[in-house]
Amino acid sequence: MSAWIAFLIAFPLVVGAVLLVVTRPSIRNPIVLGASAAIAVASIATVVTFGNGDAVFFGLPGGIVPGQALLAVEVAMTAFIVVVGLMNRRFLAPVMALIQLGIALFLEMTGRMPDADPQRLFWFDRLSMVMVLIIGLIGTLICVNAIGYMRDYHRASPMTRGRRNVFFSLLFVFLAGMFGLVVSNDLPLMLVFWEITTLCSFLLIGYTRTEETIGYAFKALNMNLLGGLGFGLAIALLSNQPNGLDLAKLTAGPVSGTLLAAVALLAFAGITKSAQMPFSSWLIGAMYAPSPTSALLHSSTMVKAGVFLLLRLSPAMSGSTVGYMVTFVGLVTFLMVSLVAVTEQNTKKVLAYSTIGSLGLIVGCAGIGTPELAWVGVMIIIFHALAKGLMFLVVGTVENRLYTKDMENFDTLISRLPRVSVLALVGIAGMFIAPFGIVVAKWAAIKAFLLVPGGQGAVMILIMAFGSSLTLFYWGKLLIKVLSMRTISDYERSIERRISRYEWLTEGALAAGVIAVTASIGVISDRVVGPYALSAFATGPRTLPVIDAAMLVVMLAAVLFLPLVAVWASRRRYDEADFYTSGRSGNSSHVMGAALGGSRSVTLRNFYLDGVINGALMFRVGTLTCAGILGAMVLTGMVVR
Amino acid sequence: MTEPIYAILFIILAPVFGGLLAGVDRVVSARMQGRVGPPLLQPFYDVGKLLQKEAREVNPVAEPLLLGHLGFMAVTGALLLGGTDLIFIAFVFALAALLLVLAAGSVNSPYSFEGAERELVVLLASEPFFILMMAGVCKVTGASTFAGVMASPQLVALQLPGVLLAFLLVATIKLRKSPFDISVSHHPHQELVSGLTTDMSGRLLAYVEMAHWYESALLGAFMVLMFNWSIPLGLLVFAIAYALEILVDNSTSRAKWQLVLRSTWVATLLFSGGNVLALFLLGR
Amino acid sequence: MSFFSRSPWILHYDGSSCNGCDIEVLACLTPLYDVERFGIVNTGNPKHADILLVTGSVNERNIEIIQNLYRQMPEPKVVVAVGACACSGGIFARAYNIQGGIDKVVPVDVYVPGCAARPESIIDGVVQGIAALEEKRKKTA
Question: Can you give the pTM of this predicted structure?
Fold first, then answer.
């Protein structure tokens, strides 16, 4: 199995290097397809050879310890950041990168960096298994989707310099980084992979090299580097603790003292990477990148790295003040971004806020540290990766066809893009309609929070109740738009035929995945997520959420209902409607007869509750609140030492 | 006892209960206004007529969505009495309500769309409450199913007075007494012609009516959960609450949706939230 | 078993009139006459209505409206013309803008004369309309 993992880390790096020099699509596309298939197969092989047992630890062949190599990579990355930062006259990033390198060099030079146990460099358990599948299957699907998407993207915006070789190269390097991250047990090793993903994210966000996107790219870089700095400081603190740098041993159970301080810093890093408040603005800015980037980095994979780390830390934080603070950062983020999402009209941004919210839920679960909540966290990871990945890809497809991101222009999607709308409905249903993933998770989370003692449990449930209703609202709006119909012209009918088969293939596969995973949620829970949750926590209540047959049936029905309705309706001929407009003649082109023989056009626009919710204010409130909590958390960790 | 029996009983009997309740509503309202009012079984006659009337199709998706609305509403009750987890039921209830919004909103016509949007706001207003209510009930009794709650020695309403108060406010919405400027409120209650149901006719409208009957029955069942000492007690309290609703409806001026959203959220936060918080702090 | 006679819903439309008949129609809803006893509901929406109760006459502007409303009503449906204006144009029949009674535009089933028509006549007219409704339902059933 370790051979497969080595393949998973090394192979995408090689592919990335190769793709950097290939400029012709006719050569590049087969390479991307082939490499993706290979990675997908390798991921499955990894899982199969692992066999769903308990944790496995291993090292590099020959027992080599990568100490110097890691340092070399760090120097290279820091140099790159300094150069790019100076070239763009941004100085914060180079400064932070240099500080981080400084810490690493200091530890190495003064001999404080202990030698890692050569047999425990890597850690593979059921959680890694889940992550490997997500990266290997969903990640590669997104890469394949990008083939079709980028072709249309560049056709639509010929002004942006096409550097597709860089784009695809980065996608694969990123995959390598993620694979490395989720199997690392040695913290310095994990940090290197962590920073690789940071760099890839930076470069991908700034892909189009416009003034605006460069700004967002640096914002992402700065925030992630800040997290990385936290990570580096944690390593420094742990360097003189016995077994401090062994993640598995560090997180075997609740910790205190210096270990807790380090855990707080690591949690800080996880929080920045998963775009929790106050670090959410980088994810919102990342929406200006091409959609596959948004799908890959910002829903399915990179942000999952942050919550992955937090889930790993969960047993160590369990029951401590630090843990509760992490939970509140997550839940407050969830509530506040849900409020903001209601006022947002740009569909990609709505998806982004929704992502941050879902991640907030996972963070909320990780902070408490019980098997039940760990179960919830992993379930959200699985379902969110599938459904949100699907949604971003679908929105990307729609965007390329209809040249709009505005939710108001997504109306009559069933008529204009019937098959795409079916996929979109699977995605939306997967995201929030009572069953599937997110709702199951919310349900289970509420049940779990019922067991949290003191006022915190009540506050958590309150946040869940309000936050959940808000998600209902903004998804409901999108659904209303998608489900409306009108007569369309032949030209409009032809638009859908121009969607590339890569997009159909990948989005269809993800939709099938959503449905399949819903149907097999019981099996997944019993065989994978349940055992993981129970084995990760030595103490705490041993209950897990139980999904009975009735619930499963309702869940499947609910997730299939809307897409099936769309399939059925799109086959029906839509006759020009005769709806009531006070007796005036009206039709779906929305021009009505008005007074004095005139005519007026009617626009149907969703509610954004601007008078009730001030989106910008909510964002600011959330940012400040969470900044406060985070500050307190780090301080508590330091002081309680 | 086999709980599936209760689920089936609910599916069959709930519409009868709901329809009779609607009939009583109309008769009592009429008497309050000094009129005689229709026969008690009028709602059933209405639905019977609607089923015999032509249904004008404005948007093909409307019919399946409305059937879904009706179906999921019935299923919510069936699940409730059949022994499914209470908090899950709060979510299925929300889904059922959402389907009505989708059916109306997808029609693309001004009144229907506006009605759907306002109804969505109303959903937003009332949904947090139901989640909190179920959480509160589970916390008090330590049980997570209907049967478990009924069997518990704890009388829920005594420990959740705040939740009860908020329930009365939210029930006003769900029973279509308020706000007046949305929609499916009973005939003289709307601002937007018929709001949500403006472009529904014939059997489509019948589905909405029947779904509303199920919803009324569900609210009755929720009240029974609150007064879990005995089922007749719960139903009696529900009847009294309903009478109060009719009284309030006939004697006060109309509330608009903005007011409803704010006041419901405040009430949910203060009364329900405060109640649940107190429960946790008291260390149950 | 037909429910139309137990639940006839009305759409009331006023063409060009003095509103006298409208007031009489609304009076039917008041406690004195209380047509809700018969299950009659005054809906504002053609899609929900069985009976189109028209007062006032037809002019240039409302031809289209009346036709749209009539067309938007699902089957079975009847039209009851209330008041002299709706029947034939009434006192305004020779005015430059009046085209005539409602039957110039839609098929009328029941004529209720009067200026203004009394609530008792209106109710009687509606009852006859209900009978016509039942007839139509039997034909199309």
Answer: 0.90
